[in-house]
Amino acid sequence: MNYVVVDFEWNQAAYGRHPEGRRLPFEIIEIGAVLLDENLNEIDRFSETIRPKVYRKLHHVTRDLTGITQEELNRSDPFPYIAVDFMLWCGEDFTFCTWGDTDLIELQRNLKYYHLQDLLEGPIRYYNIQKMFKALCQPEVSAASLESAIDYFGLPKDDAFHRAVNDAAYTAEIFRQLDLEKCDKLYSVDYYQNPKCREEELHLNYEDGYKYVSREFRNKEEAMADKEVRATRCFICGRAARKKLFWFTGKAKGCYCLAWCPEHGYLQGRIRIKHTDEDAIYVVKTLRLADEEAADRIREMKQDVIQKRRERRHRIVSESKAGKSAGKNRKKAAEQ
Ligand SMILES: [Zn+2]
Known about the structure:
The chain is α+β, with helices and mostly antiparallel strands. Helix content is about 35%, strand content about 25%.
């Protein structure tokens, strides 16, 4: 199996809102990629700029960041031609590698805009090299930039950053520094093309956890009423883990729970609600083992939620009392 390390540069609306802004917030104007064999040796490179159709004028931020010029874009081919070339170039048996988790989303959004989504079937199993670098080299850093990761390994920086093919080559360099066997266990799945029915739902097992991506629901209430969404099976032994704390809405609008497997201890659950481009929702649930400390953090979060709700109720009650007595006073004043 080969690896396609890919990077895109994109353009956006020059000022404010654009009628196509929702369907295509970012228009790809450059595709750069490095094709690697299974031993990570370079086989070939792909580098093409694209003539934009929606945001024809190059945004000054994109121009300054990338060094791409308007003239360069004007004499390039449009996206459908380049996209077909690119997917043919990728071949049959390959895994995408990217720096971060946004590139594949924008690629699929651009393909969909031109009704070319058949070129790339999802959900896509891929390697997020940024995530792997973090997990294997800098667990304490939130999200390293590509340049800082190159500096971390002391690799040469001869080519300009923020040109697609250069960034792809830098990402490939970092990939080569990582332990390939460990990488394989840290794979990601892009679910921009989210599951539509129960059969397509994703159940992903990792060494340290489990991830579930649901089919679509109309709203959060409908999703949370679903048995599979709420389920807390232990991802190690498969047994049902009893809930110690039922699902509650905590910080950042996520839902959290705490369950207990008699053999493997605490499991912490988190549910995030995701929105599709078509305004449906689906659920991403993760289950991880939790130590006593992590379990306490979830308990504290729940206490916090209860406390805040209590305070809010008090405030509403006392405000409505104040409102009533103010009304009475006004009435009295009017009668006098
Ligand atoms: Zn278990």
